[in-house]
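Person: I have long wanted to understand how a fold can be written as tokens. Underneath my words sits a plain record pairing an amino acid chain with its backbone structure tokens. Those tokens are not coordinates but codes from a learned vocabulary of shapes. I should like you to check that the lines agree and flag anything odd. The protein I mean follows directly.
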Amino acid sequence: MIKKILISQPQPSSEKSPYFDLAKRYDVELTFHSFVKVEGVSAKEFRSQKVHIPEFSAIIFNSRHAIDHFFNLCKELRITMPDETKYFGISEKVMLYIQKYVQYRKRKVFFSETGNWDELVTLMQKHNTERYLIPQGENTTHDLTQKLDSLGLDYKTCVIYRTISNKMPKSIKEFDLAILFTPIGVDTLVKTYPDFQKEGVKLGCFGHSTAQHIKDLGLPLALEAPTASTPSLSSALEKYLQQNKA
């Protein structure tokens, strides 16, 4: 019986979050605690990469973290992005966030409708004269660069933030299920609580890279998202709670 769930993310700011509805409906207690935190690289660290931002005509973002740290770094370096700069993103949700820093205009903001790299690359092919910059996290892994190489598009990657382990709860054994979102979050849990399986704590996750990392470690997964039947974590969690209750 699942009664207490640890979700390795900050608590949602909105009371309308589906997590809270699930907690009430299935009488479970949710604890939100980030296993990791994100910090930007210093201007000195960035300069050592020998990347001159004004040389690029298009920027690619794969997360809101990337947007925040990119524009914060520009501010620190006293770089003003030209109005004609184009911005490409993995999803509409990510790219709407860019309004925090620049005026949103459809003629210079492009995104994948499905959140798929293949679709984004197809868009980029239509703008094949651009010089693309991909600001990303340290140790970021995805197949975007391989696709760009195969098409001969002009691009460069740069590291603008890193993800590090956060302070963890004293005990894990009070939880029945822990839900993870990043490979480093998985590593943090395993390192901090090496006996979590003996304590009966099950694992859930969101994200293909996180799921693969868990499987590579030989750990069982109780629930996983996104999948064809459960595209969101809340839908995967609801399905699991329904099955567990039955």
Observations:
- The two ends are 10 Å apart (CA to CA).
